[in-house]
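User: Teach me something about this protein's shape.
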Amino acid sequence: LEIRRNSEWLATMDIEDVLRLTARTTVARMLERDDFANRYADGSPISVMEFLYPLLQGWDSVMVEADIELGGSDQLWNFLMARQLQEQEGQEPQVVLTMPLLVGLDGVKKMSKSLGNYVGIAEAPGEQFGKLMSLPDELMGAYFDLATAWPLSRAAQVMTDVRSGAMRPVEAKRLLARTVVDLYHGPGSGEAAEAEFDRVFKAHDAPSEIPDVAIDGAEFRDGRVRLARVLAVAFPSAVPSNKEGRRKIEQRGVKLDDVVVDDPDVELSALELDGRLLQLGRKHWARLRS
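Assistant: First, the predicted structure itself:
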């Protein structure tokens, strides 16, 4: 295994190097890319920087003398640009292997941490299970194919059973969630996560394990902190801003010690926060420490 950082060659490039790189292709070649061609036809703006990206990525393949490049199907055109640059440098053009993109939990865009529609491979079993249970039914086939490590024939059989009515969609989704959790956390982890999920979401009990979240003293102003801010600190993936925390409270989705909070401007002291159980919806829990 060899790990390289492309800053080794990109960071040392001056404007002359960049101009030489841009001279290796043409605007017509760039517009062969479907995305660029469609935007050009629609009159949508395309920045010069966007043209530079595939050239810089392609130059990576030149510098490491890549034999094979593996990536998502959305990267195909960039990989082919690398082949062109390698040929110009007298190298054997790399073989390109692309994989289908996994659509995120929103059912629209590719899975991305920045979009918040992802299941993290290092997340806790319960978090993975709960997220997968929110998956739109129409995405289950793709997730069985791409996220379970099963043979495609087995994944196809499950979806056949769903379509025939032999298996209910919710049963298939539970099977998917258990399988993914087992894959990343070991056999039996999926069943345990399922039992915890049922305990919390069916019986409406608090989770058996609730993380402690410390609220730093710097968050307090005159000895008090808004609960909207506490939500952003405790659950950053679900509450990316104070404004969103305020909105969650207004929607009556926030509880302190199992009591709904209805004042979006509520402020609490460190003493009033310490040890309290904070709940956002049914999925997010924290034991506050100050």
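Now, about its shape. Residues 48-64 form the longest helix (17 residues). Strands lie at 68-72, 95-99, 212-214, 224-226, 254-256, 259-260, 267-269, 277-280, 284-289. If you'd like, I can walk through any region in more detail.
User: That's plenty for now, thanks!
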